[in-house]
Design goal:
Blueprint lengths: L2 E6 L3 H11 L4 E6 L2 H8 L6 E5 L7 H11 L6 E5 L4 H9 L4 E4 L4 H16 L8 E3 L2 E4 L4 E4 L2 E3 L3 H12 L4 E3 H9 L8 H13 L8 E6 L3 E6 L2
Helix pairs in contact: 2-3, 6-8
Length: about 230
């Protein structure tokens, strides 16, 4: 099955380079040079992955992502591509709705590994779909929705997968390497900071704490454990 990728990149040489990597891997590429042109296309087209640059001639990448996630309610996986490598910028990208990020200059094999990881859910249409309930949380994998009691919580695709994984394994010590391997399908040496940033995001969005009867504990040097409080 060929997957369709939208590339939002205003530098022609960069978009052509990305296309040259994706086409031999059987991805169909659609390129856009402005944020508005991608948003217009999303009104009538669907893609399996969005690759979004930060610096654009009209509206910047984070603004595009906020529109995609918050206004258009599209949960297609997004990989953010940026020349910015500060932790603040990376957190900003993830908080804006990105599932992953890459810092320019992009390296071919790391790029392809990230693309495969973020499109795996689409390829594996027979993935687990059983509802998971850990009061007050209810996870519905079929449409990637999570509820706190009756209130739905907006999560990105990768945030949902991570939250579902830790609740499915509540009480177990989850190593960062295992989390990267399972949720991101990546080798541990790529970037464990991605895990820590996403853990912080879902802790806040799901309000994981004593008030809801749970604790997400960071175990120094190892990883995380979700604990049910009495």
């Amino acid at each position: 099955m060929s997957l369709e990728v939208a590339i939002l990149e205003d530098e022609l040489a960069q978009s052509q380079l990305i296309e040259s990597w994706l086409l031999p891997e059987n991805y169909i590429c659609h390129t856009y040079a402005t944020g508005q042109s991608l948003l217009d296309a999303l009104n009538s087209n669907t893609y399996n992955l969005l690759l979004i640059d930060w610096e654009l001639p009209d509206i910047n990448g984070p603004e595009v992502m906020q529109t995609v996630r918050n206004k258009m309610k599209i949960d297609t996986p997004i990989i953010f591509i940026t020349s910015r490598d500060s932790e603040e910028d990376i957190v900003n990208a993830l908080n804006s709705g990105a599932d992953d990020y890459l810092v320019k200059p992009v390296r071919q094999f790391e790029f392809l590994a990230r693309v495969r990881a973020n499109t795996k859910r689409t390829r594996n249409s027979t993935s687990e779909s059983t509802q998971l309930t850990h009061s007050p949380y209810v996870f519905k994998p079929d449409n990637q929705q999570v509820f706190i009691n009756t209130d739905v919580v907006e999560l990105s695709s990768k945030e949902f997968e991570l939250a579902f994984y830790i609740f499915k394994n509540q009480g177990k010590l989850l190593d960062r390497k295992d989390i990267l391997s399972t949720v991101w399908q990546q080798e541990a040496d790529l970037n464990t900071r991605t895990v820590d940033t996403h853990m912080s995001i879902i802790r806040k969005k799901l309000n994981i704490g004593p008030e809801n009867g749970w604790r997400l504990k960071s175990i120094y040097g190892h990883g995380y454990r979700l604990e049910k409080l009495d």
